[in-house]
Amino acid sequence: MFNSTVIKRAITRSRFQSIRLNSTVKLTKDSYPNVARANYAKLTDEHIAKFQEILSSNQLITDKDELLNYNEDWMKKYRGESQLLLKPKTTEEVSEIIKYASEQNLAVVPQGGNTGLVGGSVPVFDEIILSLAGLNKFRSFDSTSGILKVDSGVILENADNFLKEQGYIFPLDLGAKGSCHVGGVVATNAGGLRLLRYGSLHGSVLGLEVVLPNGEIVSSINALRKDNTGYDLKQLFIGSEGTLGVITGVSILCPPRPKSFNVAFLGVESYDKVKETFVKAKAELGEILSAFELMDHNSQVLTKNHLKTSHPLEEEHPFYILIETSGSNNTHDMEKLEAFLENAFESETISDGVIAQDETQIKTLWNWRESIPESSQIGGGVYKYDVSIPLDDLYELTNAARERLIEADLLGEGKPVIDAVGYGHVGDGNLHLNVAVRHYDKAVEKCLEPFVYEWVSGKNGSISAEHGLGFQKKNYIGYSKSEAEIKLIKQLKGLYDPKAILNPYKYV
Ligand SMILES: O=C(O)CC[C@@H](O)C(=O)O
Ligand SMILES: [Zn+2]
Hints:
Uridine Diphospho-n-acetylenolpyruvylglucosamine Reductase, domain 2; FAD; oxidoreductase; flavoprotein; Vanillyl_alc_oxidase_C-sub2; FAD-bd_PCMH_sub1
């Protein structure tokens, strides 16, 4: 029988192996695609003096050590050499900065919480870093419609905590919620853990305030659900990765906060059974299904090494699934979830599982999923691939990558690669392939790129499901977009940013 009463914590002797590390990662520019600094102006004292007129002294940073956190990305994979960080507090300040940068031909990289995973939010050379962290005011909340208007630098978790008090929820949730900004998630069109329930930001963002590359402020920050007056220009900025304008304000439609959340963590014997469970979950849980996350065995090995606590399931399995339901009546939701799991267990679709009994256990179970990215950094470095693939072949890429790394003698004890793990948002057809490494290594990168992109393209997938292209995939857009589409993208960039001062060296 399926045990739904407690989270089992009976693991005394873990069979999850521990991982031996033998070196730390050193950041080198060798792994960068071949790019040369473009013909932007070099920063001078005169430029700095002008920025000092726009901002007060504590909003302008030139100290090398302080700049490091902004020059380098979270994975410590990409590092620029900016000599200036600007921290405006208002849209007008952003506008003045950008206007002057444009006049002077100075390149600028907009930066939110710097939690991006494709090197999109850090400079490549000496671009000025424009942090939006100082734009952190809540503008308004309409409790009748659920429409929230905030500055772009508001931290996602703060926005959600605010909404919680009003009985609403932010329609996006992700592991980096404690640091990422609302504007950043919009600029990258982040997907997160509940896209299955709330859809993409292209649907929930109602309006944006944006500073264009010439400094002009364009505001469509309205509170209208319907507006069919010509082109919906805001859509272009959603997912543009800071290449068309700087988002300074966001208006977003927030749904009522569910009153009951339940989470089950399941063990499954094959990827075919994962798919079968997904079909059944959609049919039997219906509207209360809010997340369906896949984790492979090796991802849990890394996570166990990182968390150093007992795994929720006693037995090991090739795959694990986290299912979340959310609704308005806990008795109803729990009965439905238990009935679904009972059926899945009887028909041997799933082999094992636990249901969280309270909020702490819900957090514990989510932690085994949300900690995978951090756990993949165990050796200090990680190659990440974030792809959309039709569900039939979704997991297969992980095996293909692992086999290729083994054939090339790059994976194993004493080799650069610790392991290749696959996990992700099955409900959205989105796989995360993380290749954990002991050090960044040209041979590993050559083994995986463009192999992964070719493989995905061969399955009619997308080489970026949610993290964007950034710097990592700057040369690979052709695997997901046609020549005609790329031409249009370049034309749009030329129209919005003729001097190409915003976030250069990235995908466009
Ligand atoms: O780090 C990754 O590869 C995935 C990060 C994030 O999109 C997630 O789903 O946890
Ligand atoms: Zn994800």
